[in-house]
Amino acid sequence: MSSFRRLIAGYRFTSETSSGSACEKIFILDGVPGVLWTPEGAAGTRPLILMGHGGGQHKKAPDVLGRARRLVAECGFAVAAVDVPGHGDRPTDEEYDRLATENQARVEAGEDPAPLIAGFPALVARQTVPEWQAALDALQELEYVGAGPVGYWGVSLGCGLGVPFVAAEPRVRAAVLGLGGASASADAAARITVPVEFLVQWDDERVPRAQSLMLFDALASAEKTLHANPGKHGEIPAFEGDSTLRFFTRHLG
Amino acid sequence: MSSFRRLIAGYRFTSETSSGSACEKIFILDGVPGVLWTPEGAAGTRPLILMGHGGGQHKKAPDVLGRARRLVAECGFAVAAVDVPGHGDRPTDEEYDRLATENQARVEAGEDPAPLIAGFPALVARQTVPEWQAALDALQELEYVGAGPVGYWGVSLGCGLGVPFVAAEPRVRAAVLGLGGASASADAAARITVPVEFLVQWDDERVPRAQSLMLFDALASAEKTLHANPGKHGEIPAFEGDSTLRFFTRHLG
After folding, report:
1. Helices (runs of H) and strands (runs of E) counted in chain B
2. Which domain holds residue A176?
3. Which one of A194, A202, A219 makes the best mutation probe of the B interface by having the most chain B beta carbons within 10 Å?
4. What value of ipTM does the predicted structure carry?
5. In chain B, is it the N or the C terminus that has fewer CB atoms within a 10 Å radius of its CB?
6. In this complex, do B227 and A227 lie within 8 Å of one another by their Cβ atoms?
7. What pTM did the predictor assign?
8. How many domains, in total, are found in chain A?
9. pLDDT for A106-150, tens place per residue?
10. What is the CATH number of the domain that holds B218?
């Protein structure tokens, strides 16, 4: 397949497995490790969802993997995720490590952690926005992905990095974001106009509630819907996974 | 049918029509006009949703009717609504009219309307809670309704009256509420423990946003989910109707 051969140059598939009805391909694109899930035997253009993982996690973290498999099996979409710098199969990033150590020291000295947590994604996004755009370029050349509508899903760090990505990338037509605050990305949020489903954990111990509501408020989207549920940062209820599928089906399907 | 004959005494059906797949019965129960929708040819016990209409509206207002028909046609539920005192086919209530006139004068004199709007449901609920409980008693005696799980749906005035009703009535297992503020009913909200889907209009011109968030916060339910969307008081987006159906199906179906 010619598109496959063209990709192989800068885009090396390292393994291919089939789990359930999703076919999983690990790839490396210009040094960035990623994973692509597609329906088994997929042919032709389909919606592609890019998923951004959380801080300290990686491209195949359980919440990414679980949602990806459902989007593939139940919606027939393609789903991809890549490791964020300093995460997963990528080498340790000295600058990010230094910042993390400094932030930890400042928290231990009694500083409010919120602005420190918030500042980190803005820095990393300068690197991840072009990396993720390059991933879309490459994946959409595959015959069984194609140039269909694109969605983005990311919460926590995946929201901090996702807001500037969605703001910058016109191929993204709908996004699920959340567990993130305005101090990180209110300016970029004001440039987002596509439909957004925004998740808030009402008892989030990491993102102040007011910060979450301000980020939702800052989105310029005419259609945006906030879903808030009781519980801590990592405790998004399972029924929101169903809602994510319906949201992407409504806007991309 | 014996249960039907028993009801006829205090519970007069005045008409029966069939619209689409929903059979509609207008009834009068101890002077309170109501309407019951059931699937055509329904037999046996099924979930029953009681719907509370908005201020100035009535038991067959378009948003009540539209949701009722879908709950009947798509879920097979029974749905009922009764006129609130001073509304629909009920006589004008002099006390409520006097209050409304007084409130209008105070608003025109420059007072904040929020506490005045909020105080009204608390007063009316003393009458509607027992009326709605009597409606459940009567309707659940019908063979084609039965003593199945009960849900409640009501926004705006339907929330102000619904919060004390859901708090008082153990048959209610799940509720959709919203467009209401804490000043009306925070105490009653703190006695609600069933799952709640709570609707907020982000640009509500009648209920201050902070009041809405406080009422959601006051609910004691372990499972409660807030859905906020842009737009004014009356502009709930259509996709929330789909969510209502799924919510009741999940908890009562």
Report:
1. 9, 9
2. 2-252
3. A202
4. 0.86
5. N
6. yes
7. 0.89
8. 1
9. 878 888 766 666 677 888 999 999 999 999 999 999 999 999 999
10. 3.40.50.1820
